[in-house]
């Protein structure tokens, strides 16, 4: 058993008969009254996010988790297939367990958290950013850049991303996997 003092991002806990991952937290010590911890929890079984407040010193049940590097192989319907880079064991995960499945490119390495007691995969941590090639976008109109104007672009995985007007087909762009937004153009 742990307490609220042990709460950190990425910690997996048992809560309300489910396993949740702590996405973000904030220790709050008001001027009047007891301290508490405000958390945002993501269910590892159905992907739902809920806000919860724990009082200071509240006991939490921590799930022991092992993290392994897996390489994304291919998608088949709603199942995504991964291979452990050390043991070459393959696993299949449902699309719902992934944060940004539309940004996964074949060959991308991800971190998979596995419940040490049941050997069941819990969550998949994407890299902070991915570099993908733009396969389709409308040409930008010259002189139309007075404001931060964007246009939709389709990348090689099929995802739609809003990009600045100067991005053309064939350009490689860096995308933030947490928000799914354009970060910068990558030069070869």
From TrEMBL:
It is found in: Cytoplasm. Keywords: Cytoplasm, Elongation factor, Protein biosynthesis. Residues 67-122 form the Translation elongation factor P/YeiP central domain. Residues 130-185 form the Elongation factor P C-terminal domain. One of its GO terms (cellular component) is cytosol. GO terms for biological process: peptide biosynthetic process. InterPro entries: Elong-fact-P_C, NA-bd_OB-fold, Rib_uL2_dom2, Transl_elong_fac_P/YeiP, Transl_elong_KOW-like, Transl_elong_P/YeiP_cen, Transl_elong_P/YeiP_CS, Transl_elongation_fac_P. Its main location: cytoplasm. Pathway: Protein biosynthesis; polypeptide chain elongation. The keyword DNA damage does not apply. It holds the Pfam family EFP_N. GO terms for molecular function: translation elongation factor activity. SUPFAM superfamilies: Nucleic acid-binding proteins, Translation proteins SH3-like domain. Belongs to the elongation factor P family. This is Elongation factor P. It comes from Flavobacterium suncheonense GH29-5 = DSM 17707. The gene is efp.
């Amino acid at each position: 058993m742990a307490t609220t003092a042990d709460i950190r991002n990425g910690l997996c806990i048992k809560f309300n008969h489910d396993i949740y991952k702590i996405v973000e937290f904030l220790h709050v010590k008001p001027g009047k009254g007891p301290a508490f911890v405000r958390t945002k929890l993501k269910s590892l079984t159905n992907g739902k996010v809920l806000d919860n407040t724990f009082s200071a010193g509240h006991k939490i049940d921590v799930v022991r988790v092992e993290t392994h590097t897996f390489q994304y192989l291919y998608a088949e319907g709603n199942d995504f297939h991964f291979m452990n880079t050390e043991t070459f064991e393959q696993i299949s995960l449902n699309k719902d367990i992934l944060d940004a499945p539309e940004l996964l490119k074949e060959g991308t390495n991800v971190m998979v958290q596995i419940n040490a007691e049941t050997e069941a995969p819990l969550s998949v941590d994407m890299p902070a950013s991915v570099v993908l090639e733009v396969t389709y976008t409308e040409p930008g109109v010259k002189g139309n850049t007075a404001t931060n104007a964007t246009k939709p672009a389709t990348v090689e995985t099929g995802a739609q991303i809003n990009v600045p007007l100067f991005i053309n087909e064939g350009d490689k762009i860096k995308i933030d996997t947490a928000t799914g937004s354009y970060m910068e153009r990558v030069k070869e």
